Fold this sequence. Notes:
The structure is a single chain. Helix 2 (35-45) packs parallel to helix 3. The longest helix has 13 residues, at 12-24. The protein has one domain: Response regulator (Rossmann fold), CATH 3.40.50.2300. The radius of gyration is 13 Å and the shape is globular. It has helices at 12-24, 35-45, 61-71, 88-95, 108-119; strands spanning 4-8, 28-32, 49-53, 77-81, 100-103. By secondary structure, the protein is of the alpha/beta class.
Amino acid sequence: MGKTVLVVEDDLDLIGIYREILELYDFDVKTAVNGKEGVEKFIECKPSLVIMDGDMPILDGYQAFKQIKETDKDANVVIVTGFSEFEPKNVEAIKQGLIKVISKPLGVDELIALAKKYSEISV
């Protein structure tokens, strides 16, 4: 347990890329295409890390992050966004326990480093 990564992203091409890369490193990858589905999948599979787009339909990444944290205060969530990490909503999310805000694009090395770091947390 602890090697599951949940990717919440409305761009299906990015989901495919993230999945392919993470699976090369033996991560079990679960996916969701919007924030609402992401929260549901989080509750279902309790991943070691959630990598989530900030801007999605139905429930954006920030709203989904808040719901995930209400479910599990120790959840490890990263938001990938086109905006600066110093945007007020990003600063606020970090204060509420968001691990990191990453400006797009998310590089392969950073993706693997995050997944490895948070999969090694003992559960």
